[in-house]
Design a protein that fits this description.
There is one protein chain. The chain is an alpha+beta fold. It is built from 17 helices and 11 strands. It has helices at about 1-5, 10-20, 30-55, 65-70, 80-100, 110-120, 140-145, 155-165, 220-230, 235-240, 245-260, 285-300, 305-320, 325-335, 340-355, 400-405, 445-450, and strands spanning about 170-175, 185, 205-210, 215-220, 375-380, 385-395, 420-425, 430-435, 435-440, 455-460, 465-470. A 5-stranded antiparallel beta sheet has the order 8-7-6-5-9. Strands 1-2-3-4 form a 4-stranded antiparallel beta sheet. Helix 6 crosses helix 8 (about 155-165) and helix 14 (about 325-335) runs antiparallel to helix 15. The radius of gyration is 27 Å and the shape is elongated. The chain starts with a helix and ends in a 9-residue tail after the last strand.
Length: about 475
């Protein structure tokens, strides 16, 4: 799989084709799952590469690259990668030029207002109501540009506005205004926003726009008054109203994404097992949070160690295909601190696990008590979640500490019953006692079907079970 990933976007067309494998294909679920897994890994690499070029090569990031990299963590098979975003913004700028033939005769102020009017008329900015304000999908530049609803929160609305404005010769950048991002528009040096000559050739004029809410200019005095109302001291106002860098916009976007994913959470980032709504809409919450963590660990060095535990947790539980990124990007940051050895040990464990042959588990006289088989779908009798069996033991093989923590000996049949390794529809893996397995008589959910390709070829409706793709491990199932 790593060899395919290294081919980069040259393999994208083949992967996309297999992501849409026909329903009657012999290994339809496996083809769809692994093609999407590889495609997503390639796309994440492209996003991370954009960010790391700033650190390693000192490259200056454009706003669309800086924010478009977040889309690479949630893209799947949709349109809207960084190159698609650039093309779409180019098209919009061209569309504006065609709609406003007198552009060259306009002052900077007139252009700024006209561009705001354009993006609002195209329904590229803003949201439909306050209940959409914390919705995750509205925090991504690519989704805002390519989603049919075109909803975008203030930072993304300002980014779209600024990217189009820059293509039209207007110097527009997000500014550091708290809570609600505005755009700062500057005149050419030596001239004011209305085209009049200023006293100094180095002097510039500045105005503020809020395309999220309105097409008219926002007065600087209004912004200063708002700053005073939230306790910002007057000497700090000028700095707050300056243009923000691409790196600052990245961190602000990351915090916004984290806020959306953590809705209802009050302390640490949620574990993957809590993100049970992963397949209910756009974008994937796991990928979104993982991308936010990557950006924070890259661009917030003072808090880098605070983020390490969380990115390692996500990596272990769903993104181990990124082991080379962990080794070549994350590990060097922590090489000289105690956490570095832990990262290195984890990398080695994953690489050793990938290269080691899985033990073969046969059905023998010792396992005659194992009632269920790999591929059967069940509902947990107590907690009612959906899962599929991916392995089994003839008795509980977990550690004594785990058994004490899980009160295994309080079960009706205790530890001396069959236990099953299962994949749950919320993406988690668990270890379940046989007495808690209730075999399902229904077709698996869409969530289960999407995940099952990791271990299975297809769903066999006649037998009511998945067709195993791990016969080398469980040859008798």
């Amino acid at each position: 799989m790593q060899e395919i990933i290294k081919q980069g976007y040259e393999a994208k067309a083949v992967l996309l084709k297999n992501c849409l494998a026909p329903d009657d294909a012999e290994d339809v679920l496996a083809r769809r799952y692994w093609s999407l897994e590889i495609l997503n890994a390639m796309q994440r690499r492209k996003g991370i590469r954009v960010w790391t070029q700033v650190m390693k090569e000192g490259k200056e990031l454009s706003l669309e690259e800086a924010l478009g990299a977040f889309d690479m963590f949630v893209l799947d098979t949709r349109e809207g990668d960084i190159s698609d975003i650039t093309t779409r913004l180019d098209q919009l700028a061209k569309q504006f030029r065609a709609a406003v033939p007198a552009l060259a005769e306009m002052s900077t102020r007139q252009k700024a207002v006209e561009i705001a009017r354009f993006v609002r008329a195209q329904d590229l900015v803003g949201i439909y109501g306050d209940d959409e304000y914390h919705i995750l999908r509205n925090r991504f530049l690519g989704l805002a540009l390519f989603d049919e609803e075109h909803q975008a929160l203030p930072l993304i609305s300002v980014a779209i506005y600024c990217c189009i404005a820059q293509r039209l010769g207007v110097n527009a950048q997000p500014c550091n205004f708290p809570f609600h991002v505005h755009a700062s528009v500057s005149s050419a040096k030596g001239f004011n926003l209305d085209g009049k000559k200023l006293d100094s050739d180095d002097q510039v004029d500045c105005m503020f726009m809020d395309p999220f809410k309105q097409e008219e200019e926002v007065g600087e005095s209004k912004l200063r008054s708002l700053l005073s109302s939230i306790g910002a001291q007057t000497p700090t106002h000028a700095e707050i109203l300056t243009s923000s860098s691409a790196e600052e916009s990245i961190l602000r976007t990351a915090r916004n994404i984290a806020t959306s994913v953590q809705s209802g959470e009050t302390t640490d980032p949620p574990r993957r097992s809590l993100l049970s709504s992963w397949n209910t809409g756009l974008p994937d919450t796991d990928g979104a949070f993982y991308g936010a963590l990557w950006s924070m660990i890259l661009f917030d060095p003072e808090r880098r160690r605070n983020y390490l535990h969380h990115i390692v947790q996500f990596f272990q539980q769903g993104f181990t295909v990124d082991v080379d990124l962990m080794e070549n990007t994350i590990f060097p940051m922590f090489r000289r601190v105690p956490e570095g050895q832990g990262i290195l040990k984890l990398i080695q464990e994953i690489r050793n696990g990938d290269s080691s042959a899985k033990p073969v588990v046969r059905r023998t006289a010792n396992s005659s008590s194992v009632k269920y088989r790999v591929g059967q779908v069940f509902e947990h009798r107590r907690y009612h979640y959906e899962g599929v069996i991916i392995g089994w033991d003839n008795l509980c093989r977990a550690s004594e500490a785990w058994m004490r923590q899980m009160d295994v000996d309080r079960l009706n049949n205790g530890r001396h019953q069959s236990f099953y390794h299962v994949l749950v529809a919320d993406k988690s893996s668990r270890y379940v006692a046989e007495e808690n397995i209730g075999i399902s008589k229904h077709e698996p959910s869409a969530n289960m079907m999407k995940l099952a390709g990791q271990y299975f070829k297809r769903w066999d409706e006649e037998n009511g079970a998945f067709v195993s793709n791990i016969r080398d491990e469980y040859p008798d199932d």
